[in-house]
Amino acid sequence: MATYDDIAAKEAVPARPRKLVALHWLTVLCLLGAATAILIRDEVSARAARQWLLEIHRHFGLLVLALFFIRLAMRARKNTWSAAGHSLAMRAAAWLTHAALYALLLIQPLLGWALSSAQGKPVHFFGLTLPALVQADEDRADTLQTWHTEVAWVLLALITLHVAAALWHHFFLRDGVLRAMLPQRRRR
Prior knowledge:
By secondary structure, the protein is mainly alpha-helical.
């Protein structure tokens, strides 16, 4: 009887470039850091701690933005958009989900940056003060706050779908898609 590893070896999905895998997991860590910082901030009452957590949230968000551009350039150069071997419907669903994830990984940090600008708060990134994206405006800040929150929920839903699809590939299709995105151990 064939084991899972035998099946996975036969139907091996080409491993993704190591740098792309590293950037994927760095993005995951930055998203977790941004979410954790802002959720903890809501539970803290000390003003200094709240400000510090907001700065951490902003830094992680800006790192997500920087990683977005690096990942986009790498994917375009390496042409790693294919899902060969799957049905047209599955390829279309994967492409649409990834396109939506990439769009939100661009939009969400920009909304946060614009929100800070609309609130009249400077945005710092590792000691650099970034330019304001919009003029300070209380009404605009309220609108951007709503959009930033709503996009966060949509992003969370898409990430949940992405994780569920990866687990479905791993446990039901057993096609090696999840393994292709896991960091590879160095072979001796």
